[in-house]
Design a protein that fits this description.
The chain is mainly beta and 103 residues long. The chain has a single domain, classed as Sandwich (Immunoglobulin-like), CATH 2.60.40.10. It is built from no helices and seven strands. The strands form two sheets. The chain has a four-stranded antiparallel sheet, with no helix packed on it. A three-stranded antiparallel sheet has the order 1-2-5, with no helix packed on it. It is elongated and about 55 Å long.
Length: 103
């Protein structure tokens, strides 16, 4: 299983800024290893976020996203103490969900 995501969420003025650093290799399937063989594609396909259990973001990604991707977004109506949950799923079927409390 992948390393935990680093999630930082800070409330300010009726909204919260959420920053997420995901740990993932993100292989495109076009790179070759030292033996000349193609490295199989392995990348995050779906990312979703929820605020106190309510979906607030859904994204579909492809192989062109960088290794260990960073995502930032804003949630209106969020306040300190609320929960933010981030989930990703990759093309091999692996998933990861992590949660943070807005400060």
């Amino acid at each position: 299983m992948a390393d935990p995501m680093r999630i930082r969420a800070q409330a300010s003025g009726g909204k919260a800024t959420v920053r997420v650093l995901m740990s993932h290799e993100m292989e495109t399937g076009q790179r070759r290893d030292s033996a000349g063989k193609l490295v199989p594609a392995w990348f995050i396909q779906e990312v979703s976020a929820s605020h106190n259990g309510k979906p607030v973001l859904t994204a579909e990604w492809g192989p062109a996203v960088a290794k260990n991707p960073f995502l930032q977004f804003t949630i209106k109506g969020a306040k300190a103490g609320d929960k933010v949950s981030i989930t990703w799923k990759d093309n091999k079927g692996d998933t990861r969900t992590d949660e943070a409390t807005i400060s």
